[in-house]
Every structure is written in structure tokens, then in C-alpha cells.
Amino acid sequence: MNTNTQATQELAAAPRTWQRSARAIFAGSVGNAVEWFDWSVYTAFAIYFSKQFFPADNDTASLLATFAVFAVGFGMRPLGGWAIGAFSDRFGRRSALTITIVMMAGSSLLISFLPTYRTIGVLAPIVMTVLRMLQGLSVGGEYGAATTFLAESAPAGRRGFHGSFLFFSIAAGLLLASALAWGMTHFMSRAALEDYGWRIPFFIGGCGSLLGFWMRRNVPETVAFEKLRRKGRIEPRSLLWTWNHHRGAVLRLVGISVLGAFSFYLFISFMPIYAIRHAGAIPGDAFAASTASIAIFMIAQPFFGALSDRIGRRPQLIAFAAAYLVFLYPVVTSIGPGFQSMLLVECFGLLTYGFYSAIAPSIMAELFSTDVRGVGIGAAYNLVVALLGGTTPYLMTWLQSIHREGWFLAYVCAGAAVSLITYWRMPETRGIELE
Which of 85, 128, 203, 354 could form a Cys-Cys staple with 144, CB 3.0–4.6 A? Predict the structure, then answer.
């Protein structure tokens, strides 16, 4: 083939490659955004429905019970990451993504119609717990499946940019949830929110998940998985096999994820409630600051992802961990009741976290081979998140009730030290081919 003919074919193939990549990003991102909207409205509206399902003598006890169910849902994430990750390694990333969004749609719609403790007694918290466990399975499976799908759909030199849309879409879902909470707290009374208003976001999320399912069902499978299937190398891999053959990758993923698990749920899920209860902030202002900071975080994701494709993954990770280790405690404890103070604190937490989140999918995908990428990421990452991230709201609420919230910040700083050591010692993986 002469040079001119080859060049012509490459130019003709470029639009098709771009269209396939754009379609993969859109399908993975939209469904992921809806999933995380569904997942996060529980925390955003917990302060309003906690006594409806977990009646107690005081608000703190009810909120603690509600966050205990939050932690139980997180406890299901490793199981979801393992089961759906293994499924994606056997039957494809697209099929796994379809299953996760159906699970989330059904559970969210059921929560929106769930009778309260006053109506059905102890069945109310039991059913709420079961549905939250189902959501935990869904989110656990979603992360591993979406990570592998986006990373395997990207060119090697653009994987950081493509992978950044995972947390871009997570932020979009969280932004919608936070914006809805902000709007409802401004235009509805607290009594209305506690009576029926909290049901609205669950219903919206359930309907949105059905839309996400429709969009995902026809997306093409990733090139990496199709290549593996054509070679006949698809085999069931147990967790034990993955541990024995990819132990270094699993341990490195754990070290990489420790600080990320803390920071995500500290600054996105709990900080508005912390500002309300600790600093005396007005709920509407707290949710407005959260909404604005999440929007800034979301916009920054593709830029941080593209930056890593130019300078590498390690520099951003090291900057993230070092900033938390040095500045987390003084910044968080300085939060005040004003909008500007809350916004500055949350922007510090989320923008420094963004150095990690934008490239986390790329780093994790680059650790594993295609035959175990789904289960390797899904099981290991979700175990870290369940143990550390899932307990964050509960621990912070309890420590705040005994005026010892500083202990938790010291705990997070210790996690920053662990991740910093991992980042410093890990090899650079920018631009490697996925096998």
C-alpha cells in the first residue's frame, strides 16, 4: 500500500473513531450520572426523612440510624463490584452497565412509594435497608463496569481525558441532586419536606434511570473486550485467582484509593450537613455552596484528565495527597456559616481531590489485564470505599455529637500519608497499551 492510500484511509477512519469514542463517553456518562443522582439523594435528604423511618427521642439518634443504613448500603458495594465485575469480564462491559442501571431504577422508584414507620411499623426501616442494599450492589457494580468501559474505549494517548468523564458524570449526578435539594429547601417548608417532599427526588431518579437504560442498550462493546473474545481467552476468574496472579496490582489499587474514598464522601456527601450542624449554616446556603463547588469540580475534570495525558499520572496524585496531608485539618476546621467560607472550604477539598478523580479510571484500568479488569477494579476499589467512605458520615456525625470531629480529620490525614507513599512508589503508566 502506498503512502497516499494509507493516509487517505487513516483520514477516513478518524471520524468513525471519534464518533465511536464520543458515543462511548456519552453512553457511559449519562447512565453514570443518573445512577449517582439516585445514590446521593439519600444523603442529601436524610435530614428530612430520618425520623419517618427511624423514629427516636432526638434528631441525632435518628440521623445516626439513617447513616447506619447508608453504611450498610456501602457494605454491599464490594459484593456488587465482585459479582458484576466478574459478569463484565465474562459477558461484556455493556451488559454489566445495563444490569446496574436497571437495579438502581427499580430500587429508587420503590423508595419513592415506601410507606413510613407510622404506617407499616418496623417493616419500613427493614424494606428501606433492603432497597438501600440493592442500590449498593448497583453502585458497586457500576463503578467497575463504567471504569473499564470508558478506559477500554479510549486511545492510549487520550485515556486520561476519556476516563475523566467518569467523575464528570458522577459530579453531574451529584450536582443535580444538590441543586434539587437547594431548590426544594428554598421553596418548600420543612414540614412539607418531611411529609412528602423527600419522595420527589427518588421518583425523579428512578424515572431517569429508565432513560439511562434505554440509552445504554445499543452502545457497542469495547474494542479491548471484543479482541479478548475473538482470541477465545475469556475464562471465569475467581477472586482468589485474581489475588494470586495480580496481587501487586490489587495492593497498589488499595493504596491509591484510600485517600480518594475519604475525600469524596467528606466533601461531597457530608460537608453540607457538617456546616449546618457545626457552623450553624442556613441549610439553603449550605446546599448552595455545595452545588457551586460540585459544578466547579465537574468542569475541572476533563482538564485534569487531559493534563495527565501530557505530564503523567504521578505528579497529580502526589500533589493531591500532599495538599490534604498539610492543609486538610486547618482548612476544614476554619469553616464558617457564610456562603463564601463554605464555598472556599469545599473548593479546596474538591479541586485537590479532582487531581485524583479525573485520572482514577485510567490508573485503575492500567493496573490490570482485560480478562480480570472488571473484577479486579470492582472488588478491590469497592472494598476500600465500603470500609472507609461508607463509614464517613456515621463517624463524623457521632464524633461531632461528642465534640471530637477533629479526630476524624486526623484519621483522614493518616490516610493521606498512606496514599502519598503509594503514589511516590508507583510506576508511571501514562500511555501504555491495555492488554
Answer: 85
pTM of the model: 0.81
- Residue carrying C-alpha cell 497529580: 316
Say how many C-beta atoms besides its own lie within 10 A of residue 57's C-beta: 7
Cβ neighbours of residue 144 closer than 8 Å, sequence gap 6 or more: 81, 84, 85, 88, 96, 374, 375, 377, 378, 379, 381, 382
What pLDDT, in 10s, does the model give residues 343-396?
A: 999 999 999 999 999 999 999 999 998 888 988 998 888 888 878 876 776 777
Q: What is the largest CA-CA distance in the chain?
A: 82
User: What does the alpha-carbon distance between residue 358 and residue 353 come to, in Å, rounded to a whole number?
Assistant: 9
In sequence order, the 6+-apart residues with CB closer than 8 A to the CB of 70 are 42, 43, 46, 132, 390, 393, 394
What size, in residues, is the chain?
Answer: 435
pLDDT (tens digit per residue) in 106-160: 888 998 998 988 888 878 888 888 888 888 888 888 888 888 888 888 888 889 9
The domains of the chain, with CATH numbers, are 23-226+238-425 (1.20.1250.20)
Q: Nearest Cα to 14, choosing from 24, 22, 25?
A: 22
